[in-house]
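Hi, here's the filled form for the chain we discussed.

Project: internal
Contact: R.S.
Residues: 452
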Amino acid sequence: MWNRRQGRLRPAGCGVEELRRRRREREAALRKARREQQLVSKRLLREDALEETGGGGVATILGEAEIQQFLQLAQRGTEEKEREKALVSLRRGLQHPETQQTFIRLEGSMRTLVGLLTSNQALLQLEAARCLHELSHSEQPAVAEACLPATSYLLTYLSGHSSDFIELCLYTLGNLIVESEAVRRQLLPQGIIPALAACIQSPHMAVLEALGYALSQLLQAREAPEKIIPSVLGSTLPQHMLQLLQPGPKLSPGVAVEFAWCLHYIICSQVNNVLLITHGALSTLELLLLDLAGAVQRTEDAGLELFFLRKQSSLLPEGLWLLNNLTANSPSFCTSLLSLDLIEPLLQLLPVSNVVGVLVLTVLCNVAEKGPAYCQQLWPGPLLHSLLDILAFSDIEVVDQSLELLQLLFLYRPEVCFLPRLPRPSCSNQGYRPWRSVRQPSSRIVCVLSRR
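And the returned structure, exactly as it came back:
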């Protein structure tokens, strides 16, 4: 990054390789911050309002005798309502880590629960799946391993007719996939990728969002570049993911964010990014970013803008992170970005927010870093005017990134040093739209390289 103690640019002491080293270190630091400070790895669905508010319906920790009693009632009760109530009580008890540990130690408990999951009574089946979902949310790896006998059934039920049940199965699988390599080893040969590819054609947004979550959990596995991502790229998933990122009245922010993370993992694996370009990844991102930026700028009323930002603020930076990952180490993708005339549209995004401005400038730095031929296409043009405006901002991160871009331009095109007088820093920032509301996408921000 820009070092204020240097006082001025020193080309002799700060060559191209030094700049590249600094940029690599900065990118690594950004990814580490996202991984360690802003991640939530698992999802939990709970329908009961009393459970969410801590009301009287929440059960206490269950012992072995109570667990056995509820399982026996659920399995052999005389009335369906009685059996369902027993599973509800067990599910609430399984919210406690102590009950989870007792449950997996109890001989035959998982076998009984799987038997209820595969019963022909829909209500019992749903409550058994909810019990498994509570177990899947555990932070203890042993609990995820204990759920292994149920995973093949959860996979089978993805082809069912109930969207609510499919959504629950997807979130449960996503929780288990990220925790256990044994679960992944079992599900891959059983066809989890074709099953997910079938689910992506669902008309239900809740199912698609759950699918994006489960797929992103699968794609971040250590073995993903060798064993998972090639199969995903060979399926219809990439085309459908990009279709779900296209702007329009049917765009769902939650769905788009989940699949943006899926694309993050695929791009960072460097398995076959050319395929994504072939499917129109850059043009899709261009349309999405411009649509979202335009929507923010069109909302004149502050209250409306806050409502919009809470729903869709994550899409704009996530789309820019995708562009950043595509252009970071690939001259060919930078060439594609230039050939699609995306520079000026990107510059239009600079005033949207500090966060967006930094990411736009990072993408432009990726392009400029590739050498004189790339800098020649960046300059002259609208870039000069935009950078001069940015230098009047008070946000230090935005100014730092703009100075880094200028430094790259100075190295590769010395003639750009002959600039008009720079504007004085302004405290008013007229015409600049501050970042009003920063919200983590889908309650989590995930590292580009790893969620954990």
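Let me know if anything looks off before we file it.
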